[in-house]
Amino acid sequence: MSRLAGKRAFVTGAGGAIGRATCLSFANEGAAVAVVDINLDAARETVRLVTDAGGTAVAIEADVRDEAQVAAAVGSAVEALGGLDTLFNNAGIMPHQDKSFLDADLDLWKFITEVNLHGTVLCSKHVVPHIEAAGGGAVVNMSSFLAVIGCTYPQDAYAASKGAISSLTTSMAVQLGARGIRVNGLAPGPIATEHVEKFFPDPEARRIRLARVPLGRFGTPQDAAELACFLASDAASWITGQVVVLDGGISINYI
After folding, report:
1. What mean pLDDT is reported for the chain?
2. Buried (b) or exposed (e) across 81-93, using 16+ Cβ within 10 A?
3. What is the C-alpha to C-alpha distance for residues 161 and 66, in angstroms, rounded to an integer?
4. 1 — pLDDT class (breaks 50, 70, 90)
5. Fewer Cβ atoms within 10 A, N terminus or C terminus of the chain?
């Protein structure tokens, strides 16, 4: 039986690489998916791919920083899908200009925090009551391995926002467990998307980073999608408050 049969999922950042892969995986596992993105064309393309594969999905435009837009998006999803019992807080940004706190651009810090952290808060605030009304379900938050280890090439605003998301995940899990709602996170290392590849400006930079990975490769969007599917499914029914590091072993490799 499909792992997410009958589930109704609200996925943010669903026009990007990881969000799209997750929407396809959720749908393949039986879920109907609200495909939410600030870029409506990207959301529609994800929906096209889902429906071409025989799944059910609806495209919804929303900026997760804007509470009114989030509330409207959740309302549209509930109307289209008949309710919600799964939330994947995937929307996030990782600007290339994010560097050390020593060179902090506070406007950039605020922007990153608003999207990554506040977006997670707002979507959770508005989706969780529907999950509770459905009798329970699961929330999956997107953190990062940079929430648990430092980096010689810092991205401090991004790391700080993801550390906050990891802490929020545990607090949410404690609060929502009695309501039948599990809350977990995934913390990926470098996933080989077009955006991440730009952090490796030359072959040597890429080689240095790849040498840190015991499993010998960067992650793929599908790696993240598979973990999100597991955490959202009943196979993880006794797992809550955990942030699972998905990094090919980078975080355990001293040298």
Report:
1. 96
2. beebbbbbbbbbb
3. 17
4. low
5. C
